[in-house]
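Bench notes, bay 3.
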Amino acid sequence: MEEKQVSYEETLKYIHSVKWQGSKPGLSRTRHLLESLGNPEKHLKFVHIAGTNGKGSTAACIASILRTAGYKTGLYTSPYIIRFNERMQIDGVQISDEELEALTDEIRPYADAMTEDPPTEFELITALGMQYFYKNKCDIVVLEVGMGGELDSTNVIDTPEVAVITAIGMDHVAELGPTIQDIARTKAGIIKEGGDVVVYGANSPEVDEVFEETCRAKNARLFKADFSRISNASFDLEASRFDFAPYGRITLPLIGSYQPNNAAVAITAAERLREKGYKITDADIVEGLRQVSWPGRFEILRRDPVFILDGAHNKHGILATAQSLKTVFPGRKFVFLVGVMRDKDVDDMMEVIAPLAERFITVRPDNPRAMQAEDLRDRVKKYGKPAEACASIPEGVTRAVAYAGKDGLVCALGSLYFSGDVRTAVGMLKA
């Protein structure tokens, strides 16, 4: 029988055809898929990362440190910015189209056979990732949850080398809330019996109490990132620079006043790994952070005018972005290009950035959950700044750059789901 060749486009079409709406929460589908593949996750070691904001940056920092230390390091993240392949990387290299096609062909028969309770898109992708990292014999995998923690498909793993929980804020309230404690408990679901846990060092007392209680119940060791070790922070359009005791001066090519805190969480995780026998030197930590790359987080896409792309999409993230804008560009006003999902609290977000706005341009991200540009424009107008809706993201980018002028400032934020389209549109502008 002639073997059927499946194209990359057909592979992605199949992956995206599976939806999560209507599926019951739980880990049974992911476990079933992985059992069909021989449980590849049982042969891997993990750093497991949950949290509301900072997951991606922290994951990228940890992966870069491990890679610099000589470990073959997998990185699993979501969502992607430009290409789907970004979601699975080994030593900074994305999965190839050919390997993605082959792995999907391998897993598809098992997924298609689950007719009574079919896997969701994210569950399918998680199984793909586990098989990819196993087949490529990764020494360790930095594994970012999709949403939540307790019932996230990545939580099928056993006790990780380190569980990391980044900053906690109010997001995905319908699924995880309604209170900050409820959200923290869901994130704390990645804490396993006898594990080591690193948490963000500036959460509320209510959140800290949840993590402390969970660790006591699971006989897990809790480590809080100590932000008092950070000093002499400075920021420009190239990097964040700061001292971090005892490592001295750190240069981190991720801009934003919140990034030293994310790096502190990553360093604290690396220190726990070192305690477990991983050969990570002080020099590996400093050099690993110097080599970090993570698109879509306070990323400078253009300089005339300065065009910033940031993935902030909830009040907690917007507050951090606003502080970064004020730190790097004191006293300046911005043209904001904004696109959001319908389930986000637009008012909470706009209240934070409206004082920094010269005007707003609204667009609709390419996502079924996205708010229409006109609806967002109408919501934004009440904050007393000019606002207009554009029919497409390229039109919005062009309009924002024209309003800013050569010496102005543009900041695109509100959703990670429009980041790729914004990057593409900015890249097509004439110099």
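Next record in the batch:
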Amino acid sequence: MHENTGSQRDAASTIFNLPDYRVTDAIDLPDGGRRVVIESIEPPGCPSCGVLATKVHSRRSQKVRDVPVAGAVEVVWAKRRWFCLEPACARRTFWEATDQVPYRARSTTRLRDQVVSAVLTSGRAASEVARAHGVSWWLVQSALAAAAVVLPAAEDVRVTRLGIDEHRYRSVRWFRTDEGAWRRFEPWMTTLVDLTTGQVLGVVDGRDSTAVGDWLAQRSEDWRERIEIVAIDPSAAFRKALRTYLPRAAVSVDKFHLVKLGNDMVTAVRQRLARTHHGRRGRKDDPAWAHRMLLLRGADTLTPRAWERLERVFRTDDPTDELSAAWGIKEQLRRLLATDTLAQAWNERMRMGYFVQIANMPEATKLYDTVVTWWDAIEVLIVTGATTARVEAANTGIKNIKRIGRGFRNAENYRMRILLTSAAKTVA
């Protein structure tokens, strides 16, 4: 059925609400859908000289994809070709274009903005957003790519505290070499984050000094000079890149990773003792294995009942007292990291070294050697409190992006999605 909008034309245009356009016709289609015919309101200026056009050369109908308006709508633009009447202009004719439908566009700007917002703010997959809006995956992806182009460059973000940590881009894969051997490949990526705002500044391939160093080398000298503190995990590769490109920045080692090293030390001792005393791996009947997670808890978090269970483990499944010694060294590391001053930290370090010397266990010695190696960074941690917490939060968001998208095959699309999502959250 053909609707004569007539005097209702303004009302229809208001309801449709497409800037710079008015509704000239509305048609009910046999399939139950609707067709809305629109035209631009103001005559355009010549793209070459800017003189406003006054004479129409020709017309044609162009279908335009747009957002649903009370259901799916087929939008047809009564597009006009104009004469340029400026004698000095070399362009004789041109097709009109608007902010909502730019040159060569087949979809409105508001549609592209809406699909980008749906992906970034609601956390939906691009394919799901495409189905919901009745468009192709390629349109959603091109809209995301266009949005990424206008993202502020890392160079334009004033950063004083930088955080660096790695994450897996894809699952572990195995490849056969030319010699016929199988080789394990772990596709790591490194995330660089502004510790002040939590914004992801960059995502680079790999987790070595070259990957981080190349990214830092692309930044200007002024940008690098502003960096005061860099928080990392105990990674020699990251520290090597920082010594080269950020020699004046103070390096802080993350507290969580140091505590994890202490927990790993306790686990290694427990596993060694199980093999030594039982001749096998731990089982559920072994108190040390049954309470393996209790061994990793901080002493300050234990309830009286938990203390009783822990003492029972040391009494019944620790004949050499090595497990209790390892647990005590782990707790001493936690006390060291909880200090407020460098003097207190040094005293706790000396006490830890004494405990390690008495215990005489390779696992504990290795842990203490790590503390000694990273002592300068530990001092920065105690003084500044700089950790990689915001980087870990960013990596958690990255995991959600991978989960929603069911993984990514294209590394550039993956990197673009991370940067866009992070920028949207930072602005919000």
